[in-house]
Specification:
The complex is a heterodimer of chains A (about 300) and B (about 550).
Chain A lengths: L1 H12 L1 H32 L3 H7 L11 H6 L3 H34 L6 H13 L4 H11 L7 H4 L6 H14 L2 H9 L4 H12 L1 H16 L3 H6 L8 H17 L11 H17 L1 H19 L1
Helix pairs in contact in A: 2-15, 5-9, 5-12, 5-14, 6-9, 9-12, 10-11, 12-16, 14-15
Chain B lengths: L1 H24 L2 H23 L15 E8 L6 H16 L1 E8 L2 H9 L6 E4 L5 H6 L9 H5 L1 H6 L2 H6 L1 E2 L2 E2 L2 E2 L8 E6 H6 L9 H14 L4 E3 L3 E3 L5 E3 L1 H4 L15 E3 L7 E3 L4 H15 L14 H6 L3 E8 L1 H14 L5 E5 H5 L11 E3 L7 H13 L1 H9 L6 E3 L5 E3 L28 H16 L17 H19 L6 H15 L1 H18 L9
Helix pairs in contact in B: 14-18, 16-17, 19-20
The chains are: A mainly alpha (about 300), B alpha+beta (about 550).
Chain lengths: ~300, ~550
Amino acid sequence: MVQTASVQKKIRRTPSTITFNIIAYTFVLLLSIVCVFPLVLIVSGSFTQNSILVREGYRLVPAAFSTDAYAELFKYPEGIIRAYGSTILCTIIGTALGLFVMSMTGYVLQRKDFLYRNRVSFLIYFTTIFGGGMVPWYILLSQYLHLNNSYVARVFPLLMTPFLIILMRTFISSSCPAAVIESAKIDGAGDFKIFISIVLPIIGPGLATVGLFLALAYWNEWYLTSLFITDREMYSLQYYLYDMLNSSRFAQEMGMYLGDRELPSESIKMAMVVVVTGPIIFLYPFVQKYFVAGIAIGSVKG
Amino acid sequence: MKKRMVCLLLAAVMCLSLLTACGGNGSSGSSSKAESSKSGSSESGEDSGEASAGETGGTVDLSKKSHLIMWSPGTPSRDHNRIVEKLSALTERDLNADLEWNRFVDTAKLNLLLSSGEPIDLIYTANYQNYAVYAAKDAFRPLDEFLPGVSPALDEYVSDEMWDAARVNGTIYMVPCMWPEWVPYGFLWREDLRKKYNLPEITDDISTIEAYMEGIKQNEPDMQVTGEVVSTYGSIGSHFTTWEFLDRKYKWADFRVPYGLYIDYQDPTKVIDWWETEEFAEDMKMFKRWADAGYWSRSSLANTESKQNAFEAGKIACDLAFNSPSGYANLVSRVAASHPDWELGWQPHYRVKNLATPNHATQNGMSIPNSANEPERGVLLLEKLVLDEEYFRLSQYGEEGVDYNISDEGYYEAIGDSTTAGFPREAGSLWSTRNTEFMLYPEATAKILSELNAEFETYTYPNIWTGFAEDTTPYQSEKAALANVITEYLPPIQAGLVDDVDAAIAEFLEKAKVAGLDKIREEYKKQWLAYVEEHNIQPVTVK
């Protein structure tokens, strides 16, 4: 222990390491500033008085502090809370279901003893290149499966994403050697037992990656809502906000009478971004440790 | 061997996917279905026509309970469902059918609805929503024979001229709105600033506007004079909004006549290649002069801020082309609250050229899609919405006593803060069922609106251009190519952000000709002249 510490000290002292560290830290610092800067601008913009924002533009610190935009957003909390609830629910259910279905598919597709695995893989891959187009897809979902105004329409279409399945298959085949599965089989484990007790724990990082992708897709989902949901109470959060913005813009353009007050047109957009990114941004720290684990496993194996 | 199999399979699936894609997009499936439903229900229409019923619905058999589906544009307001429930109670009483009222926000959704054959009994449609295109593609039910049998009242209510104007290839597919509306652009300025710096009064003379802008430039260093932007005009490419300002100068059929053509209002058979004229170059040079004087910013072409927002925030001092009398009336009442010291002025372009043209018949209307399950009741619902005061008030303004009140003077009064209302005035976006007889206006805007409309009434002439249904199939690809050229080369010229105006116009025209401008113009002129002849549009003299 002592020895390694002294070795580290020695390494740290060499001028090239110091230079490297300075450059690396400066670079990373600059990079994180570049990443954080827009976020700060957005948050400050959301707290700026709208007229000042329009006239003087964005600043790091609000020129005139105001919470009008948030007041406008949350004027009718039931609506936005309901949208939050439905989006959170769809995200959780969709991600859980999707992970389950896709990891099973990925697992089966990488099993060497599955006879038709290449053909099935090809069929899945094929859909990423060719499709029937939007209108047939819409007709199928709305007129044959009758998914109009149903939460299923917001969850179902994203469940089997070909790209994620392929990702999963590659991940399982590279991190879960066939020998391990075989030995489990010899010990008398059934297929489900193998999948649940052996494969799932090993592919944790893969699940985290795919899960994050999926959760983001569900969180950001507005397109399916715009196509299949007409009932306001079933809107997803993104579409609810989009709709809010749209209706005020629509009213303005059509010369509709809106009363004597001007709407916080610019700052409200920024407030929406804050409201929408708020919860999902907390997902990253939780998932991050799996990313780190994934990278570490890879490095150990070389 | 295996590889060959895979190749074969691939080819087979590709063919299959191609076929299905064509079927879906070409809507051949839905049109054949529509075909059969058309013949089916027109028979039933005739049958029930012979059997005389009498009361509501006249000749339509309403004995079976049914479900009506209506779509209108826009987004549902907070209390949309409450209003639909009330309306549904009315339709259940009168038409023995409950009502489902949905909204579409964008044209993509509309396209999906109409091409997927979704059952819809009544839908909003308009020229700017591609009414003519959908009608020509058989998305809507022809009304010439069908409507009078179902609803004689509607047939009578809409004037013959309006019915005629709604024809596409000789057939009526829409029930046009009878409410006359003028939506001109106009020059909007700050009268208080004009007085403050003692600038000349704004008159028909363009030099007074120039003097105003120069005065602002000199005296208000923190203000931008105007905030013109690049705006997209459907499929004809993007233009700089100074273009709309020129509407005050020309007595053309419409400034939106595409492809740089100029159709003279006073003699519709006269079609001029406007981009090539000396006047066009002069206009562009005027804009260059203004741009050089710094009336709009050098980065205007990338500006995305709405002019109205900038104006209300006091960032810009005028708007060369502010749209619509109702927009102005609302702006005045809003500004009165946020900046009581301001005074506004608006000069509609119509006033300058002494020529007003109301919206065309097809600007707002309702159609019965061919995919309707209950086309007869769809028509009856429309009759109710337009001609029955109870339906009209409920669908346009909400519930009396909950959403609005009628003042003693007969004005519309929103209940509570009008921005918090669950169903604000005309929140249903049913502009197509507006009926002059039943309409209510808020007091704040009513005066300005009625004054302006009364003024337009004195020099109004029929709209001859927007009812023209252009058939773009002969030059579809050229049109797309030209739109790209326009978007790339024209806005800098219109914004005066080029060094040499003449050279820039020459370059633009050269590129446009390569894209196929001549072919498009030739075909467009041919179609236009045929339209003029068919509708017997006569030359007029505008005083």
